[in-house]
């Protein structure tokens, strides 16, 4: 079906935007002062949806050993910090400013990855146009 790819992308964009508008509403308008609790609620709902998808068969989850899980713990801690900082920023900034800064951070992160892994040097025109 021709419209399947764009429909999936459009659905993702709608859910992505609605989640940010909902978060902005809860954090700013309702003056929810416990973003960690709100983050925990979102994580619980996401985990339940993930578990339901696994039980239905839409998703395959393999059990990992303890050593595999320990390797991911620093990344998980950083992820929690990023979500907390993002919720604090979203409660204080307007949505267009937040999205601009959020996307600018992605460009900077991409640039660092390109430079650190030496995929492309600064003399490449593709790398230079990314920063413009």
How do you describe this structure in short?
The chain crosses the membrane at residues 7-26, 38-57, 69-87. By secondary structure, the protein is mainly α.
What is this structure's SSE topology?
Elements: H1 4-29, H2 35-56, H3 66-92, H4 95-116, H5 125-131
Describe the protein's architecture and organization:
The chain has 132 residues and is mainly α. The protein is 79% helix and 0% strand. The chain is built from 5 helices and no strands. Helix 1 (4-29) packs across helix 3 (66-92). The longest helix is centred in the middle third of the chain and has 27 residues, at 66-92. The mean pLDDT is 76.
Work out the strand percent. under 5%
Overall radius of gyration: 19 Å
Q: Could you estimate the helical fraction of the residues in percent?
A: over 70%
Write down how many β-strands occur, each being a DSSP E stretch of 2 or more residues. Answer: 0
> What general form does the structure show?
globular
Q: Largest beta sheet, briefly?
A: none
**Helix/strand order, N-terminal first:** HHHHH
Mean pLDDT: 76
- How far apart are the first and last residues' alpha carbons, in Å? 37 Å
Would you identify the regions where 5 or more consecutive residues have pLDDT less than 50? Answer: none
Structural class: mainly alpha
* Continuous helix count: 5
Keywords: Membrane, Transmembrane, Transmembrane helix
Transmembrane segments: 7-26, 38-57, 69-87
Protein name: Novel protein
Main traits of this protein?
membrane; Novel protein; 5 helices; 79% helix; single chain; mainly alpha; globular; transmembrane helix; transmembrane; 132 residues
């Amino acid at each position: 079906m021709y419209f399947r790819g764009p429909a999936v992308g459009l659905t993702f964009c709608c859910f992505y935007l609605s989640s940010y508008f909902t978060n902005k509403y809860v954090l700013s308008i309702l003056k929810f002062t416990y973003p960690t609790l709100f983050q925990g609620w979102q994580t619980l709902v996401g985990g339940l949806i993930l578990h339901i998808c696994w039980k239905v068969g839409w998703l395959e989850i393999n059990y990992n050993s303890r050593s595999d899980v320990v390797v991911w713990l620093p990344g998980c801690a950083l992820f929690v910090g990023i979500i907390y900082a993002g919720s604090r920023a979203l409660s204080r900034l307007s949505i267009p400013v937040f999205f601009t800064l959020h996307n600018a951070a992605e460009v900077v992160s991409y640039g660092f990855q390109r430079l650190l892994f030496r995929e492309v040097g600064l003399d490449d025109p593709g790398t230079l146009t990314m920063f413009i």
